Amino acid sequence: MSSSLKHWVKILRGTAASTARGWQGMLVTPAAVKPKKMLKLYEFEACPYCRLVREVLTELHLDAEIYPCPKGGKRFRQEAKAIGGKAQFPFMIDPNTGDELYESDAIIAHLYKTYAQKPVPVRHKLRPLQVLSSYSNSVLGGNGGMNARRSLTVEKMLRLYSFEASPFSRVVREKLCELELPYELINLGKEQAADLGLNGMHAALGQYAPVQGGKREQFLIKTNKMMVPYLEDPNTGKSMFESRDIVDYLEKTYAL
Fold first, then answer.
1. Is residue 138's pLDDT more than 90?
2. Confidence of residue 205 (pLDDT cuts 50, 70, 90)
3. Burial (CB count <10 Å: 0-12, 13-18, 19+), residue 45
4. With contact defined as beta carbons under 8 Å apart, do 150 and 33 qualify?
5. 3-state DSSP assignment of residue 97
6. What are phi and psi of 74, to 5 degrees?
7. Which of 40, 145, 192, 201 could form a disulfide with 197 if both were Cys (CB 3.0 to 4.6 A apart)?
8. Nearest to 170 by CA among 3, 1, 9
9. DSSP letters of 170-186?
10. Whether the predicted pLDDT of 221 surpasses 70
11. Helices 167-178, 243-254: inter-axial angle, 10-degree rounding
């Protein structure tokens, strides 16, 4: 199977996984108060409990420093254990409040209480259904981002513009996780009805206007394009769109 075909198989599997999950982690509902200091999340892409937290980060428009902890990882798994006392994921550190939290439901409750300043929605309280659905998402997605691979280390964190339910962003997050490359996750969840649909649909229907003052407007001004994923690597000065190009770049630049 060619690399191009393998990539599209992953995209199709990711699309099926997001559909099975009801496309949670796509819409901003609504944006929360932005923390002064970026949240820190130790997690791995294929973990169904970590996904629940990442979905809420998208839905609340919150960004976070991601420290990938795939199985067999030797960089951040031990760091998380040294800080919190156990290698259990997800593990979130909130430098704004001093909280160090395990368990996805505890992290989600903290995010809603502290930054959304409202109760956790009922759907998040249906924990058995949420967990089962998230497990299905991992299986349908092929459990990408589960196991660590040898890679070069980086001096500076990469930056990824993404939203959780995007199958194109998913394959990039999987690669970052497998290579244990830390990155700033900048969430660009969809803020309005005009944001829905495939990339390019807005242009076909007419002039696209993002929500004024929103993160998507800032991103559009920055890049002159509204699509994700978008990767910035301060270690090499590279910036790029297109999931396949980003995955190829990460593989060629950092995989051993």
1. no
2. low
3. buried
4. no
5. coil
6. -115, 5
7. 201
8. 9
9. HHHHHHHHHTT--EEEE
10. yes
11. 10
Report which residue type is found at 149.
Answer: R
Neighbours of 51 (CB within 10 A): 30
Hey, where are the domains in the chain?
A: 3-188+228-254
Residue 198 pLDDT more than 70? no
For residue 140, which amino acid is it? L
Instruction: Report CA 142 to chain centroid distance, whole Å.
Output: 17
DSSP-derived 3-state class of residue 208: coil
CB 54 within 8 A of CB 26: no
Architecture label for domain 3-188+228-254 = 3-Layer(aba) Sandwich (3.40)
Quickly state the pLDDT bin for 203 (edges 50, 70, 90). Answer: very low
Mean pLDDT of the chain: 91
The residue written with tokens 């993404």 in the block is 162
Prediction pTM value: 0.93
Distance CA 39, CA 247 (A): 25
What is the Cα gyration radius of the chain? Answer: 17
User: Distances in Å between the alpha carbon of 60 and those of 63, 64, 132, 190?
Assistant: 9, 12, 22, 11
At 124, the pLDDT band (50, 70, 90 cuts) reads confident
